[in-house]
């Protein structure tokens, strides 16, 4: 089965047992800071791995519960697929619990498990009252049908039941698709002695590979993924749904902060003005006036700004979705559809949350005309909807596009046709449609992979095409890779050589590091003619590693700079061709072993394997005790 990756959040009021429950599930202590251990509360985000089945991998995020640490809580739950709402049996629903539920809903999180902790502290009657109260409080929320699990983290009661419930919930949860551009909002930055800068976060989308070139936005700093760890284990890749720590080269710790975003593409938009659809919280709050200072939480960013209305001068609690604009004091990185939370900085309170309609908002007039324009954008143009679908799923046929966009066939076909003309979309024969920018990214990935391969294996003619496709197929579908390779061949940027592919201008050559030493060995092989030593003897007392010896041997044979005379012996190309031409010139159409020995003056030890080599290469063909020359080879 395909491996599936999820992130689960532990939410709830302070001291209701989130950290203890995380430890009971994973055997990992997520409180790391001295203050956390001394005070018994979580200040920063804590993470732990939970492996439910062989193909299901879960990261648990233990988010802070204290009101003062809500900003860390928002950053922690922004990328989760399922929340475990922890409520202590001896206290029940508390104000912080309710705020967490509001934030979770506003962030678009729909799946929840209610874990009633510390059940050993209450009797059955009290436990029943707490359960009824929680159910009543969750009525009218998206969590009203959430399953309940009763447990005690210290004794282990209910822990296995919770694991089974998590497995059941995740089985019907759509896991994050790894296709598309890589994006990781950074929530932790630190330095490791001898390693340099390390960033942590939840991979929102795409896949990152070790040694890949990346960009830190909004500053646009170019970096390289020197090392990747997933829960302290080094990996070659990290993909959507996983928690990852990435060791970056090319950047100082002081150049990165929490809220920055690590990406692999320049297609991500950096902006300070966003048009949004805002839903207020379900309780009253002090009216929010036009241009009031607010604090925006989106991804792991926490940015001050002002709220701009175009149909009112102040906002109070409402069940309607409010379309408005937020102008920020700092640049952020967002995409259409990203969720956010809006808070008032003073007095501190949550106002609401919603999603980004347009990442690059403009300056609009107050009034109905602007509202109609924004509501039209809220619905999304047909092209917007198609781009959103292809950004997530990379390659879709028309049937799938209609399912994901809800566009009818006529509108879909007209929009695709126009997008083909403007270069937004690209048809993939017999497969569907992709974004032109996706193909451009694949092209860069392929060319970079080939360049790296040539640098590492300069004596090889290229990389096996199937191996190249396989190495990238976890990120992009194979039909799209096949199409991209064909495009690159047609554009003369790469060349096929039998089953291998290489950069168009590349020719196999000796590596710079060992060139002189290898040339000396090749020259000696030529000087020795047929009096050659065993091939391995040429490397005695040389510093050449075994891998380089194997690479050199393959290179000489594939490039025909040498030929294999016997299993343990090579002869130089000059030796072979000189002997072959001399024998051809001094024999008739047919010749035998004695005649060949007379011409070349070689011992039987060398003569027989040389004649067999001629047969093997198709220069001659044996017929009983004689051989004859193949006319098309001479």
TrEMBL record:
It comes from the Bacteria. GO terms for biological process: selenocysteine incorporation. The keyword Ribosomal protein does not apply. One of its GO terms (molecular function) is RNA binding. SUPFAM superfamilies: EF-Tu/eEF-1alpha/eIF2-gamma C-terminal domain, P-loop containing nucleoside triphosphate hydrolases, Translation proteins, Winged helix' DNA-binding domain. Residues 3-175 form the Tr-type G domain. PROSITE patterns: G_TR_1, G_TR_2. CDD domains: SelB, SelB_II, selB_III. It is found in: Cytoplasm. Keywords: Cytoplasm, Elongation factor, GTP-binding, Nucleotide-binding, Protein biosynthesis. NCBIfam families: selB, small_GTP. Its main location: cytoplasm. InterPro entries: Beta-barrel_SelB, EF-Tu_GTPase, EFTu-like_2, Elong_fac_SelB-wing-hlx_typ-2, G_TR_CS, P-loop_NTPase, SelB_WHD4, Small_GTP-bd. One of its GO terms (cellular component) is cytosol. It comes from Planococcus versutus. This is Selenocysteine-specific elongation factor. Translation factor necessary for the incorporation of selenocysteine into proteins. It probably replaces EF-Tu for the insertion of selenocysteine directed by the UGA codon. SelB binds GTP and GDP. The keyword Transport does not apply.
């Amino acid at each position: 089965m395909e491996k599936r990756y999820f992130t689960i959040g532990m939410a709830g009021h302070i001291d209701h047992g989130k950290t203890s429950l995380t430890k009971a599930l994973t055997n990992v202590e997520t409180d790391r800071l001295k203050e956390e251990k001394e005070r018994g509360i979580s200040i920063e985000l804590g993470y732990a791995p939970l492996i439910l089945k062989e193909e299901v991998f879960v990261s648990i995020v233990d988010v802070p519960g204290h009101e003062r640490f809500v900003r860390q809580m928002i950053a922690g739950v922004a990328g989760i697929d399922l929340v475990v709402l922890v409520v202590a049996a001896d206290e029940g629903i508390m104000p912080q619990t309710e705020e967490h539920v509001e934030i979770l809903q506003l962030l678009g999180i729909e799946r929840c498990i209610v874990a009633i902790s510390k059940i050993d502290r209450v009797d059955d009657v009290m436990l029943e009252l707490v359960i009824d109260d929680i159910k009543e409080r969750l009525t009218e929320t998206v969590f009203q049908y959430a399953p309940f699990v009763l447990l005690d983290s210290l004794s282990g009661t209910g822990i296995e039941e919770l694991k089974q419930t998590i497995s059941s919930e995740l089985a019907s949860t759509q896991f994050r698709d790894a296709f598309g551009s890589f994006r990781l909002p950074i929530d932790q930055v630190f330095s490791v002695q001898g390693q340099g800068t390390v960033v942590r976060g939840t991979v929102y989308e795409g896949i990152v590979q070790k040694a890949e070139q990346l960009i830190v936005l909004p500053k646009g700093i170019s970096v390289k993924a020197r090392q990747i760890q997933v829960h302290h284990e080094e990996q070659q890749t990290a993909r959507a749904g996983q928690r990852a720590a990435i060791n970056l080269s090319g950047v100082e710790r002081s150049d990165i902060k929490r809220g920055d975003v690590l990406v692999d593409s320049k297609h991500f938009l950096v902006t300070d003005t966003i048009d949004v659809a805002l839903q207020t919280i379900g309780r009253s709050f002090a009216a929010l006036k036009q241009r009031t200072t607010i604090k925006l939480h989106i991804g792991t960013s926490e940015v001050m700004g002002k709220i701009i209305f175009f149909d009112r001068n102040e906002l109070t609690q409402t069940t309607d979705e409010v379309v408005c604009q937020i102008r920020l004091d700092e640049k952020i990185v967002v995409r259409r559809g990203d969720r956010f939370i809006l808070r008032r900085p003073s007095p501190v309170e949550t106002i609401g949350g919603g999603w980004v309609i347009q990442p690059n908002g403009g300056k609009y007039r107050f009034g109905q005309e602007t509202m109609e324009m924004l509501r039209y954008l809220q619905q999304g143009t047909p092209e917007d909807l198609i781009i959103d679908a292809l950004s997530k799923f990379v390659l879709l046929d028309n049937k799938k596009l209609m399912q994901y966009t809800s566009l009818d066939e006529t509108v879909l076909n007209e929009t695709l046709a126009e997008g083909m003309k403007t270069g937004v979309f690209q048809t993939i024969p017999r497969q569907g449609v992709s974004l032109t920018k996706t193909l451009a990214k694949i092209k860069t990935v392929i060319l970079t992979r080939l360049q790296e391969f040539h640098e590492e294996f300069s004596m090889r003619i290229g990389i096996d095409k199937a191996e190249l496709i396989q190495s990238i197929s976890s990120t992009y579908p194979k039909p799209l890779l096949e199409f991209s390779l064909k495009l690159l061949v047609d554009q003369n940027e790469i060349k096929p050589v039998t089953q291998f592919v290489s950069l168009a201008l590349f020719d196999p050559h000796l590596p710079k590091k060992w060139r002189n030493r290898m040339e000396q060995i090749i020259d000696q092989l030529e000087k020795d003619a047929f009096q050659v030593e065993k091939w391995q003897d040429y490397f005695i007392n040389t510093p050449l590693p075994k891998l380089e010896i194997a690479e050199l041997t393959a290179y000489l044979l594939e490039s025909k700079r040498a030929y294999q005379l016997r299993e343990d012996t090579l002869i130089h190309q000059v030796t072979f061709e000189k002997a072959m031409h001399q024998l051809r010139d001094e024999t008739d159409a047919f010749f035998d072993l004695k005649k060949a020995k007379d011409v070349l003056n070689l011992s039987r030890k060398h003569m027989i394997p040389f004649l067999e080599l001629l047969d093997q290469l198709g220069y001659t063909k044996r017929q009983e005790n004689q051989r004859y020359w193949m006319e098309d080879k001479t």
